[in-house]
UniProtKB/TrEMBL annotation:
Native source species: Phaeomonas parva
Molecular function terms from GO: ubiquitin protein ligase activity
Keyword Transferase: yes
Record has Transferase as a keyword: yes
Catalytic activity as recorded in UniProt: S-ubiquitinyl-[E2 ubiquitin-conjugating enzyme]-L-cysteine + [acceptor protein]-L-lysine = [E2 ubiquitin-conjugating enzyme]-L-cysteine + N(6)-ubiquitinyl-[acceptor protein]-L-lysine
Organism ancestry: Eukaryota, Sar, Stramenopiles, Ochrophyta, Pinguiophyceae
Keywords: Transferase, Ubl conjugation pathway
Entry protein name: HECT-type E3 ubiquitin transferase
E.C. numbers: 2.3.2.26
Residue intervals of the HECT domain: 440-793
Active-site annotation: 761 (glycyl thioester intermediate)
GO biological process, one term: ubiquitin-dependent protein catabolic process
Enzyme class: transferase
Amino acid sequence: NRNRKAAGGGGGADAEGGGEPASLLEAAFIAILTRERGDAARRLDVGGNADVRRAAAALLACVTSSEQLLAALLVEDAGLACGVFARVVLLDASLLRNLGGAIDHWAGAAEATDYAAPVLKALAFGGSAALLALWEHLMGAAGLGAYAEKLAAPDAGNAERDYAPAALVTSPAVLPGLLLYFAGLSHALIATDDEDFFVAGKPVPPAVALRTVLVLKMVLHALLWANTGALRRPPEIALALAASRLLRQLRERSSRLKFSRFDADLALRLERDAGFKSFASEDLWVWPRTTINCITAALVPDGGVQSLDQAEHVLAALAPARGAAARGAAGGEDASFGGGSAAGAMDITDKAAPPRSESDERISRVLRDVPDLLPFKSRVAIFERLIEADKAMFGAAQLQSAAFFGMPLDSRGAQLSRIRVRRGSVFEDSFQGLSSGDTGARPLRGRIQVTFVNEHGMEEAGIDGGGLLKEWMDAVCKDVFDPQYGFFVTTGAEDGEAGNQVSPSYASGVLSSEHLEGFRFAGRILGKALYEGILVEPQLSPPFINKLLGRYNHVDDLKFLDQALHRGLMSMKRMARDKGGGGDAVDAVEALGMYFQIDVETFGARHSVDLMPNGSDVPVTSANALRYIYLVSHFKLNMLTRAQSEAFLRGFRELIPETWLRMFNAPEVQLLIGGDGYRPLDIEDLKANVNYHGFHQSQPYVQAFWRTIEELSPQEQADFLRFITSCSRQPLLGFRSIYPKIAIHMVPEEPPGRLPSAATCMNLLKLPRYADVATLKEKLRYAISANAGFDLS
């Protein structure tokens, strides 16, 4: 074939006379697979053809395995390789099932079977060259290049008419190449850290990575949305699995760009490379607006959830896939594509769910498997509707059972839990009040009525219209996530940039024998805050949020937990790559005198933990440095606080199912918890959603007040927001969504010089009417900077 191309006759199966070498190669490849796999591949045996035997013998004389053969073929002639892959590998549907499983296997999951692992090994053999050869084939001969370039143009829109049609994506000339490329790149990314991906441009350069996202959008649109007949045949299912997995991997890397300040090289690359700036932009990832509108219209009805049928319909969008086997193809492939669990969501009926329409099934697949293709605000709106629907179902269940069990209900028919909390013992009293008796989800899913007790032992007067719950939630979150209680520690950069992020403390058990129940309680409290839409101040570390999402932490996440350790491991990786200086030079990694063990310190006492059996006797060298880096990261991120994290998750998922939260990545989950602190305060939106008592928005004094707020620095504006609401970050969907609504109440300046004060439980600013604007500015700045006030009268 190479000689044929050199002679100008072209190559591949479509060249003149090329069918013979292509078919011979195909048959020889089958023979090699048969010999390697034994009985498992007997159904692919081509028999005793002499030409095939000679071809197989000749090939085996040049290569050591089918993996190496396919790798060489990918680099030499990607089109021919895709043809061989289509005719040989696709003969057996088991490969299509196990291709995704093989990727999981390489990430540390169960062992892959049949021919999936050899295909991925072949792509690994070829490295970047094989992937780029496949990419060039897809962009050229396969015909996807024109669509990708149109979407990548600076003035490009994002219209469905610009997307590749489903007929092209699923055609025999395109689908095998897409499947190989997506699976191969996904496999390569497992062993690629952010430094290599963003700075060194491995395994593919930035331009290819960006266009890969565009192709993924088109392919998934064709399979999951445009083509209603897809996902019933093994090839389309395999392609959807590979594409959704790769999209998730790339999107997680994109989400870490928000924290690029942790890595100087990465920050510099982002500053210089406009392409990677767009890689971090949401516009690159989302589907066309027409598709998004169809999805949100079905799940975010105007006026909210109005009936139990509507509530059940909304909740079903992220419920486990029903009837998966019936929808599957006869080949027996895994038809529950992207199925997930919605454990924790209310379901008050035992009857079988009604059949779902094709449109509902499409929406469910998108939300379960490729939610990143929807804008963040659309997903937030869906998340809020899920909670609203769950509350409706829960309320109906309480009305049905209250008469039998005598449960206390409030005037709205919601289950009521009453707790008394002393001001100086918020955590202890809350833990005792909500952890006694039934510790399931019901007490927190219903309404909590809080009564505060002052330092004199007297119950504080007040009507809980929602404000006391907010004040209690803010107070208990501050306590439970405070490192002084021993459950959490602050983590982040050495210079303190991220010192306000919290992670579970591995030493928590030393301080309390009930520490795991404390973590479960903390999870329930944070889940309750999300469930009620109350923004709270604590910021969780990205590795900890990944555990809420049910995702595995990798070495790139270590920078958010221990930047110094991450920097040292990356330095070791570079030393190992240089092979200790090359030649006969001393192995620089081995010269460090390190072993496969790690020191763990608990309140000054240090002990060593082996990272592998007899790790204290195994030196770290250039040859095994990557394994050491992986084991250190795995221990620090996934094992050290495993018990604490699992206890936290048990409490959190009593209210928030994992499938709901998996619509978001780690930075987005933090926005859900604490609001948006990355963009400037939207003063116009705030002004439009404020109630006035004693003032009017047209008065010069009120206008002077808003001018003062506009003149504040971003940090002062954040302090102002915290002063009123107890949270420095603004709501994701704007101030119209905050409850109770922010209000400004006029109070007399008595005594003279009185400072502005706030009742954070009601989002209420008490503003004296000063004699002049200068005094207003002075007093307001002083009050918010000193955090003065919190007058609850």
